[in-house]
Amino acid sequence: MKKALLLTNCCLLSFALSAQTVVNRDPFITQMVGEVSGDSLRAHIEKLVSFGTRHTLSSTTDPRRGIGAARRWILSKFQQYAKQSNGRLTAQIDSWTLQPDGRRIDKPVEMGNVMATLKGTDPNDNRIFLVSGHLDSRVTDVMNRTADAPGANDDGSGTAAVIELCRVMSKRGFPATILFLTVSGEEQGLLGAEHLAERARKENWNLEALLNNDIMGSNHSHDTRVIDNTRVRVFSEGLPGYQTDSVAAYIRQYGLENDGKSRQLARYTKEVGERYVDQLEVVMVYRNDRFLRGGDHTPFVTRGFPAVRITEMNENFQHQHQDLRTQEGVEYGDYLKFMDFDYLRKNTAMNLAVLANLAKAPAMPQNVTVEARNLTNTTSLFWQAPKSGRVKGYYVLMRETHWPFWQKKFFTDKNGLTLPYSKDHYFFAVQAVSEDGNESLPVLPRPSLR
């Protein structure tokens, strides 16, 4: 009896061990994740708050107060980090003048997005990966440009995250280019993002992903009283508005309503972010944004670029878009003291892991197809090598049609794979994989009918 029990226990242990999932982390990325500092993030936000207001219509010439002073300080930080980049990082303020629009701009205003570009090390790789936050702030009246508007969390958190990512990542080289962006004019109507998205379209940027960070540093909702610093949301659009009728017909025919480029980026963000950051769940929200709100990713989405919004799980609306006051015992205002800097650290580190994994990975495989000429219970996929990057092999991803995330991965070093699963029951995609295990964004196959 004892021998039988021992044998049973050994079998159970063996099964448990064989069922364990091994998380493979790139040491290069793991080291960078560990360098993200809550203290550094706090210092960045303290400085941003010190400018009094960063309203888009506030002073652009005062050396200590207003959005102009804030922009110049962010530029100085980027220029400081450029010194540690071996010439790869350059920084600038992309400036233009905006005329009154009869809505939220009532005078000619000097606009400026502060940008740092970490040039890729591979001259054959023209991919761009962009991370953003908006530097402007506001109080209750969106036109009030004189009142103090600390904007610690909205969006000092996203701006500080971008600055911190630049600090850590500018010390290293990546095959693809990474663009660190702090935009102006978000509160006045996504103006800075509109400007850059249109520039990216006209200049034909190969922008493969945008991570927009807006309100990501507090964990305490005011009405439900939920306190949780272990979950963060990623919003993504399913069906891009730019799709033509012919593309929409294709989407309907093959059931791809949940597989647009931004939704694929959201899945990627969840998988890679959770791989590298402990005690953090990336919660996918199947909407482009929240009710009654907008974010700087949207101008990029509407132009066909993959873009998502990253936002804290439980927003506190007493600390957003509020005049600074105490009313009926409740303190209103977007102050630094209401933030959780370990939570902000984790959310920033999640951004870093995703950006680094993307920028280190090869480009996406080309001409991915699924054989659809015959009725079979197997699935045969074929593809060509990516345009750039050293490839170790490829992952073929698989999930059931109703399932939100990829369920299985199959590795091959060939340019095709046949699986004993029906294409009628599953979605498939293909990723290129580097020698270090960094995966490209997935590419869904097109049916090969002849």
Protein described:
The protein is of the alpha/beta class. The chain has two domains: 334 residues, Zn peptidases (Aminopeptidase), CATH 3.40.630; 83 residues, Immunoglobulin-like (Sandwich). Helix content is 29%, strand content 23%. The chain has ten helices and 17 strands. An eight-stranded mixed sheet has the order 1-2-4-3-5-8-6-7, sandwiched between helices. The chain has a four-stranded mixed sheet with strand order 15-12-11-17, with no helix packed on it. Helix 3 crosses helix 5 and helix 8 crosses helix 10. The protein is globular, with a radius of gyration of 23 Å. The chain starts with a helix and ends with a strand.
Write the topology of this structure.
Elements: H1 2-19, H2 27-35, H3 38-49, H4 67-82, E1 89-98, E2 109-118, E3 127-134, H5 156-169, E4 177-183, H6 191-202, E5 206-213, E6 231-235, H7 245-254, H8 261-276, E7 281-285, H9 298-301, E8 307-312, E9 325-327, E10 330-332, H10 341-360, E11 366-371, E12 379-384, E13 393-400, E14 408-412, E15 416-419, E16 426-433, E17 446-448
Parallel strand pairs: 3-4, 3-5, 5-8, 6-7, 11-17
Antiparallel strand pairs: 1-2, 2-4, 6-8, 9-10, 11-12, 12-15, 13-14, 13-16
